[in-house]
Design brief:
mainly alpha; 114 residues
Length: 114
């Protein structure tokens, strides 16, 4: 079994930041199929948010995010990636970031065409 090694915030930032401008436009529209499909896998209430790796800003979030977190939808969509990181429990933070690193690596292996 593969093991996730803890990852610091600085290491995560260096990995997640992509200097290439992402020409997607409306991220929520672009990912609408995946957002709709998420309910097929959820075992309870869930929320989602989408980050732009070229700006490290959170560009979209589910309308219910304020019901499942102590922050409003506006706070999420006006926040940067570090806003998300700061809201992970310190004991879990390094492992959650490591899991995100793995997700970024898998995403980068996907074909660029939709």
């Amino acid at each position: 079994m593969n093991r996730l090694d803890p990852l610091s915030v600085d290491e995560f930032y260096a990995i997640a930041k992509n200097e290439n401008k992402i020409e997607i436009g409306d991220f929520e529209e672009y990912f609408c199929k995946q957002i709709e499909d998420a309910s097929n896998y959820a075992i309870g209430p869930y929320f989602w948010f989408i980050g732009d790796n070229s700006t490290l800003l959170i560009t979209a979030a589910s309308k219910n995010i304020g019901e499942l977190t102590p922050f409003s939808h506006e706070q999420w969509t006006q926040g940067n990636t570090l806003f998300f990181v700061e809201n992970i429990h310190p004991d879990d933070r390094f492992y959650v970031l490591s899991a995100f690193k793995l997700a970024v690596e898998k995403i980068e292996q996907l074909p660029t065409e939709r």
